[in-house]
């Protein structure tokens, strides 16, 4: 599961960049980048990796994944508080550091315990299948915190499609100049509903293609 470790390394580098950031604007930018990467990563784990772990390790899979899902929930809660916060505000830095601590703990539990155990009970072909599914889930995951969405399938996956689309619309709006952002929330919701259907169709098409296409291997 090299993709998991690569993603953890990227998150760790962003934490180091935060510590060396020259000003509040840079810190805010780094936290925004880290947030969307961490949330997509965690969503893919909750949707693909943890169910596979529970399926293959029924003896202790539920306890460990419930613990890590609890950490993901705390990360979602904190990132929701941070997403519109001013990096210069009191308490911002404390919240960011709590997120870092949770991500570090999460990565250690996954890399040191969960993944080695999973690798010991499934063959390479199954690992590649899990890795491919994890990558597909990450590619279509929501990019913003949604702490009130369930952390387990099918609830998280059902909520994810429209949220992923509306998040990407908001991400696009955030990149526009301020004066060009006047899109009504009704229009965003309508686009999200249409986009959700389109994403669902895309996922179905990708699934059909994946039967014929060669696997795309262990890469980020
Ligand atoms: Fe995680
Ligand atoms: Fe992880």
From TrEMBL:
Q: Pfam families in the record, alphabetically? A: Hemerythrin (PF01814)
Name listed for the protein in its UniProt record:
Hemerythrin domain-containing protein
Instruction: Give the classification, highest ranks.
Output: Bacteria, Bacillati, Actinomycetota, Actinomycetes, Jiangellales
Record-annotated Hemerythrin-like domain positions: 6-118
Keywords, A to Z, come to: Membrane, Transmembrane, Transmembrane helix
The residues forming a coiled coil are none
Q: Which residues cross the membrane?
A: 183-203
Q: Which InterPro entries match?
A: Hemerythrin-like
């Amino acid at each position: 599961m090299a993709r998991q470790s690569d993603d953890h390394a990227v998150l760790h580098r962003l934490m180091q960049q935060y510590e060396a950031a020259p000003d509040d604007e840079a810190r805010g930018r780094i936290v925004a980048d880290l947030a969307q990467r961490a949330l997509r990563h965690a969503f893919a784990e909750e949707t693909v990796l943890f169910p596979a772990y529970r399926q293959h390790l029924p003896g202790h899979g539920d306890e460990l994944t419930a613990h890590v899902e609890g950490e993901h929930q705390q990360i979602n809660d904190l990132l929701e508080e941070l997403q519109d916060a001013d990096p210069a505000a009191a308490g911002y830095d404390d919240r960011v550091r709590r997120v870092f601590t949770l991500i570090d703990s999460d990565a250690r539990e996954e890399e040191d315990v969960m993944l080695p155990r999973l690798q010991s009970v499934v063959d390479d072909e199954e690992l590649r299948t899990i890795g491919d599914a994890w990558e597909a889930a990450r590619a279509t995951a929501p990019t913003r915190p949604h702490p009130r969405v369930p952390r387990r399938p099918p609830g998280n996956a059902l909520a994810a499609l429209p949220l992923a689309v509306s998040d990407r619309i908001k991400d696009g709006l955030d990149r526009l100049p301020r004066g060009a952002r006047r899109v009504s929330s009704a229009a965003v919701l309508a686009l999200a509903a249409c986009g959700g259907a389109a994403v669902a169709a895309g996922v179905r098409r990708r699934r059909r293609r994946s039967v014929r296409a060669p696997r795309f291997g262990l890469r980020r």
